[in-house]
């Protein structure tokens, strides 16, 4: 909260959401360029959040006719699986929020700093004393 100067920071999310953001379904349709039926069939519930399996994204990367959409889906996958992993083998809804904002030229730097700070704090509290990846 102190780093972002945001009083309504959601501890369990990658960043605090803006008001009137598109739904997870709409964001995935925009990022992947796939139909509503395709996206709806692949959205899964993992714990307290919605996700899309990596396998579905991988299939889209390999078969999508639009090269730019392939790159977008690949980048979304990297963010979801490497930078901000939450559910093993799945890309979380919060990552699509971040990725959707990147397309609108919003910088991810405050988000990455906040997530790194939170991860380091979690490691310190756990007594492990070392940073492995984002929490």
Give keywords.
single chain; 135 residues; mainly alpha; 3-stranded antiparallel beta sheet; globular; DUF7745; DUF7745 domain-containing protein
Can you walk me through this structure?
- The protein has 135 residues and is mainly alpha-helical.
- The chain has one domain.
- It is built from six helices and three strands, in the order H-H-E-E-H-H-E-H-H.
- It has a three-stranded antiparallel sheet.
- Helix 1 crosses helix 5 and helix 3 (54-63) packs antiparallel against helix 4 (67-83).
- The radius of gyration is 15 Å and the shape is globular.
- The mean pLDDT is 77.
- This is DUF7745 domain-containing protein.
- Residues 12-134 form the DUF7745 domain.
- It comes from Gossypium davidsonii.
Topology:
Elements lengths: L23 H9 L3 H7 L1 E3 L2 E5 H10 L3 H17 L6 E3 H11 L5 H18 L9
Antiparallel strand pairs: 1-2, 2-3
InterPro entries: DUF7745 (IPR056647)
Protein name: DUF7745 domain-containing protein
């Amino acid at each position: 909260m102190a780093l972002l100067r945001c009083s309504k920071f959601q501890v369990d999310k990658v960043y605090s959401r803006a008001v009137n953001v598109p739904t997870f379904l709409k964001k995935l349709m925009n990022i992947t360029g796939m139909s509503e039926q395709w996206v709806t069939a692949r959205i899964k519930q993992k714990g307290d959040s919605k996700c899309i399996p990596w396998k579905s994204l991988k299939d889209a990367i390999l078969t999508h006719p639009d090269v730019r959409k392939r790159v977008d889906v690949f980048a979304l996958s990297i963010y979801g699986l490497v930078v901000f992993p939450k559910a093993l083998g799945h890309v979380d809804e919060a990552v699509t929020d971040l990725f959707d904002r990147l397309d609108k030229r919003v910088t991810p730097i405050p988000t990455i700093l906040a997530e790194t700070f939170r991860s380091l704090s979690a490691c310190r509290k756990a007594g492990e004393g070392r940073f492995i990846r984002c929490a």
